[in-house]
Amino acid sequence: MSERVVLAYSGGLDTSVAIPYLAEQTGGDVIAVAVDVGQGGEDLEEIRKRALACGAAEAVVVDAKEEFAADFCVPALQANALYMDRYPLLSSLSRPLIVKHLVAAAKRFGGTTVSHGCTGKGNDQVRFEAGLAALAPDLKIIAPARDFAWTRDKAIAFAEEKGLPIDVSAKSPYSIDQNLWGRAVETGFLEDIWNGPIEDVYDYTADPAEPREADEVVITFEAGVPVALDGRPLTPFQVVDELNRRAGAQGVGRIDMVEDRLVGIKSREVYEAPAAIALIAAHMELENVTVERDLARFKRSVDQRWGELVYDGLWFSPLKDALDAFIADAQRHVSGDVRMTLHGGRAVVTGRRSGSSLYSYDLATYDTGDAFDQSLAKGFVELWSLPSKIAAKRDREV
């Protein structure tokens, strides 16, 4: 049996050219695997046909939108995952899901090698290969753009030589990756970090400066999972999909930042994540209402480490698994409704309610009926301040 190479296939120039190129390099069959994680664009069937027309022995397309939302976006939401406190993990969430389907295809078709289109400069090569190392360590890996110095001009020339059925003339000035959870844009004039983004960079969000009526939405959570909008039961995919439209129409979720890449360089990225930013803001506020103080304080450090692990490609790591268990337990009481106003590029919480709330009106009020026994406060403050008082006295005497 000849060698079989399973290729992560997007339908674009680089991965289309990779099909005949990998066949030539390995002398084997290429199995193209395209995974729909809500990135939009072409129909999956058209992508499948193109892979076959480019010489793939088999072409598999997977509609993984619901899986991506429930098994990857929801955990990121429960972890309030914001890399460097700003970026809601877009590409790094989709890569482990794609890896799962690449491994499944390798098992199904007897694949011996997996290939991806990542360069040696980015984070995604690590995410693909660390995931493969965890799930299928016996598979070999080929990355043509990295391993064979496969540049875009070489890819175009090869496509023309082979007469491949793909457009090799049009080229966006940007490098774009998008999925259900958001959209990432880099390269082109954005590589000069003094240049501000222009409106044609954006697609998921409208100009937040344009005048429009505000949109009010009520998001319902059960154990940290979004389950309804405005009282309408929805799947996580439907929640994210609708909020991408509604929050995006209000310009919510634009992020322009210089971030620390895993490979050690800094990179300028422009992100759009309307649903992610709105949902994380709502979820954090519901946690403020339902999660006990010390648990909430500790969870913030867990959330940060969770986001770093996922960004660094360690979705299938023992530490990530352990943090998942902690976060899941911390979500037991994170149920209730959060009301938000979407307007002017912002998602602002205006109301919250929960049957698991730790907020007590009787204890918090300053009006008549206050149940807080203020007579206890004097002794509490004296005891709380005692270590500082003793240390200060010592320092004065030294």
From TrEMBL:
It catalyses: L-citrulline + L-aspartate + ATP = 2-(N(omega)-L-arginino)succinate + AMP + diphosphate + H(+). Residues 4-165 form the Arginosuccinate synthase-like N-terminal domain. It is an enzyme of class 6 (ligase). Its EC number is 6.3.4.5. It is found in: Cytoplasm. Residues 174-390 form the Arginosuccinate synthase C-terminal domain. Coiled coil: none annotated. Transmembrane segments: none annotated. One of its GO terms (molecular function) is ATP binding. InterPro entries: Arginosuc_syn_C, Arginosuc_syn_N, Arginosuc_synth, Arginosuc_synth_CS, Arginosuc_synth_type_1_subfam, AS_cat/multimer_dom_body, Rossmann-like_a/b/a_fold. ATP binds at residues 8-16, 117. One of its GO terms (cellular component) is cytoplasm. CDD domains: ASS (cd01999). Pathway: Amino-acid biosynthesis; L-arginine biosynthesis; L-arginine from L-ornithine and carbamoyl phosphate: step 2/3. This is Argininosuccinate synthase. It comes from Actinomadura decatromicini.
